[in-house]
Specification:
The protein has 508 residues and is α+β, with helices and mostly antiparallel strands. Among the domains are: 107 residues, PAS domain (Beta-Lactamase); 106 residues, Beta-Lactamase, CATH 3.30.450.20; 134 residues, Histidine kinase-like ATPase, C-terminal domain (Heat Shock Protein 90, 2-Layer Sandwich). It is 52% helix and 23% strand. A hairpin with a 5-residue loop joins strand 1 and strand 2. It comes from Trichlorobacter ammonificans. Keywords: Coiled coil, Kinase, Transferase, Two-component regulatory system. GO terms for molecular function: kinase activity. This is Sensory box histidine kinase/response regulator. InterPro entries: HATPase_C_sf, HATPase_dom, His_kinase_dom, PAC, PAS, PAS-assoc_C, PAS-like_dom_sf, PAS_fold_3.
Length: 508
Amino acid sequence: MLLNGSLFNAFFRCNATAQMVVQAETGRILGANDAARAYYGLATDDETDRYFYDFDTHHPGVTLAELNLAAQGIEQTINSTHRTALGLREVMIHTCAAGNGPETLILATIHDVTEQMLRERTVAADEERWRSALGGSGEGVWDWDITSDQVTCSPRWTEMLGYGPHELGSDIREWLRLVCNEERSQVTTAYEKMLAGGAPRLEMEYRMRRKDGSHVWVLDRCTVLRLDTDGRPGRIISVHSDITGRKRIEAKLRSFNESLEREVQERTAALNRELRMREETEQQLRAFQEQLAALTEELCLAEERERRRLAAWLHDDIGQNLALLKILIDRLRERSPEQRSQIGQIAELLAATIGEIRNRTIQISPPLLQKLGLTPSVAKLAADLGAAHGFSVSVEERSPLPQVPLSLRSTLFSIVKELLINIVKHADAQSVAIVIDRDDAGISIIVRDDGRGFAVETLDEAVYQNSFGLFHVRQRIGLLGGAFCVESAPAQGSCCSIRIPLQAHTGH
């Protein structure tokens, strides 16, 4: 290069980049362009009195040695800190031999890289901070500079795989080789998509093979840190978290859930079987209840027919025979005056027997029950018993009763009669109240007295041991599908409640 050439001088003087011509052996400045004078704060007349290494704050001797190497034709790049008009600045100096005269000269081109160095130091400090943070958190990190194809791994990453600090190479294929065969294709596809510019980050879970042959589950969170000029990733960083413990827990949870689901299915199947059995049992029970209701209805009809037959037999056969016998005795009394008194007594006893048979005939099959219904028959029965045994009676029908079969009316009449007879035998009551009512569901009858009462807890024993009437009442009500309730206490009277459903007996 000719320093005195007009073309060089024009380029040198007008170049916006700071340049100096320096004597190789001594480092003396022989010339500086305007950009260099302004950068270093040099006056035009004092630049030749300065030495280039005077600006170096760190290693002036090294700078001089680098100039000598450049004089030998070995171009050098020197990084240093210089004193400038702006203060201390980071510079990068490119040196090369210039001129072919007897004196060896060096052309030094000075670039201010202070801002670049600050950015690089900031980036380096940030990297150091997050590397320290990740290292403290137990996360493994590998950093792939795609441009240089170099991989840097954190100690924690290699430790996670059971390797020493330098046992794994810096080739990306080393990492891919450690991914389990079953998941390598999936991982490769995801990273190829990222490298093609398809996604700035990815997150996935897969297994990697440890040095001892065991497997470690990792959560891989990869991020693109830098893009090249073509828009493709130039550097990516991946953070690996060891999630083996979590995967074990998940496996146990899956196993537990599967076991629980099997148990639920088994219990559900057993419950369904039980429900089916219960439904079958309920169907059988309903069928039995229907049969029982039909049998009860048939029994009531048979009982009513038997009452009528018995009443007819008492009235037509026994009653007529007794009436004829009374006529004969009356005639005999007229023919035998000497035995009139004894025959009169026989006639009176026979007349009382005929009256009793008539009353029993009416009670067995009351004509009112067939003609007027349940309530008038019950009222007549209660009035007769009250008059005969000295207690007052009230009968109330709160709602008109529906038309029910004669068999049901006869059965209800018999039940009320049993309760009234039980009062006559045991209660010593002064008054009896009977309430007959109905609603959409059934017929209710309440028989209440003010007699001596009894302890309800002794009712079952009394029913089975001392009172066939109450036992019979309970059994008949049960056959009708009804309910029988007794409320009583010593010296507080008794209240018997009867509830008979209508649907099975009326068809409504």
